[in-house]
Amino acid sequence: MDTPLIRAVHVTKRYIMGEVHVYALRDINFTLYDKELVVVLGQSGSGKTTLVNIVGGMDVPTSGEIYLGTTALHKKSERALTAYRRKEVGFIFQ
To answer: Which of 36, 37, 58, 90 has the most CB atoms less than 10 A away?
Structure first.
């Protein structure tokens, strides 16, 4: 089988606001392959933007692993993520 284009393994993103822990993502798993069409749907506050920001290197997960091909994005430094955003991904903000 082909190497996945993007793979998320037990990705969680948690924000701490004082004593309150807010989960934007909790234990997300998915695998996307080249030439697949994917739609991310969900109600407001369900974590869609958080997920896209993590895959795009604009944010990092609290826990879990995110891969672009065989590259472990969750292990990249801020400098390496900047280079990744500059050379590999594009964002269109609404």
So the answer is: 58
